[in-house]
Design goal:
The protein is α/β, with parallel strands linked by helices and 454 residues long. The chain folds into 2 domains: 216 residues, 3-Layer(aba) Sandwich (Carbamate kinase), CATH 3.40.1160.10; 153 residues, 2-Layer Sandwich (VC0802-like). The chain is built from 14 helices and 16 strands. The strands form 3 sheets. An 8-stranded mixed beta sheet has the order 3-4-2-1-7-9-10-8, with helices on both faces. The protein starts with 5 loop residues before the first strand and ends with a helix. The structure holds aspartic acid and magnesium ion. Aspartic acid (ASP) binds next to loops.
Length: 454
Amino acid sequence: MNTQLIVSKFGGTSMADINCMRKCARIVAENPNRRVVIVSATSGTTDQLTKLCQNIGLLEKSEIIEKIQQRHIKLAKELGTFGQSYPSVEDLSNELFEFVMKKEEINPAERDYILSFGERFSSTIFAAVLRQMDEKVIWLDVRNILLTDDFFGKAEPQLEQIAHRAKEKLTPLLEEGKVVSQGFIGATIDGKTTTLGRGGSDYSAALFAEALSAKTLEIWTDVNGIFSTDPRIVKEAFPIPEVSFNEAAELAIYGAKVLHPATLKAAIRKKTSVFIGKSMNPELGGTWIVEKPEFSPAIRGISFRNNQKLLTIHSLDMLHQFGFLSKVFEILARYKISVDLVTTSEVNVALTLDTGIKSDFNYPMLDAAIQELRGFCKLTFETDLALIALVGNQLNQTAGISSRIFQVLEEVNIRLICYGASSHNICFLVKDHDAITTVELLHQQFLGAEVSKT
Ligand code: ASP
Ligand code: MG
């Protein structure tokens, strides 16, 4: 392990304007071990770039580019002479303008190239902000390091190649100063720009931490940690001070939107501790995700996701057969549809599909997968469901947990339950309109006032 190194990632709201950027730069400057800084695009920019890839007229395209350009020129101007960064905002704007205006239809590779401008703009400006604080700063084009496959829109990082490039090209730079680079984007081995999927900058930072064997990965965002549940729903929700990798992964996967779910995969591989804090209020502290937290309560937090789809697959071929489930999952895998919950009976299998948090690719892929499944099964779809996950420790071994849960939920119709596969979670589906009350009741029961003080 690189005993001191900290990789720090700042999200889009942390890059929102020059004051935000300066606050973030102060955080970086404060600790000499914060040597690798990964940033997201300024907030709203990736959405605008996405719009540029849609079928819109030239006038609208040039207006959007103008807005993106103005936002970044304003930031550079506010920095005075320090705004003369490399690559320059002007060069980036011209490159974007020329590319977009001559294209009629955008293919997935070109889309990734267009989306890459958000992080390229923000990182060059942020490097300049940091340089203004007397720091020796190197701006690095992440496409030299973060190599991926060519699944545009949701490219898969190539870990061995990343580790190799990091050693060869990044480690020497760290001797010279702090390195600022882009989240979310990568490149194929032959240099084509790719992206890791929306929200992917956390994952990029985790990949850097992994490749460099960093001590800590910091995710600076707009909330001071992972909360016991969504604080917009339950006002008693509190930031969790310390949580294990497994619990945090479950919380992130099932709805706590603080972290891109793949981030922890990378952290777990190298046991890198992860800190999540609020860049505008670092003094509030945040959540530490560690291998072995000091305290392991049965229930640590409650995540939930609305708009879940439940797909029930029925086929008499399942009766005393082998290979049926593998056929179903082979199809889903081929179309990159990820499944969350699964329950089975002799001739039915019910599963929830994760269609919400992935790239826009999933929808056409889902239709194609369904088409194929219909060839040999009867399918039923249910919608308007919410997936609620109770996350904690030894849940499948703690006597009485399930009875406490179901007592609380006496009045609620539970559509499906997954219990026992993991010691870290119990999941179930309720109707969307019952979700808030369900979460409130569970939070009160398991994470109420007296618990939050411990
Ligand atoms: N800028 C990208 C997005 O908005 C990546 C990120 O912010 O993590 O999705
Ligand atoms: Mg983000």
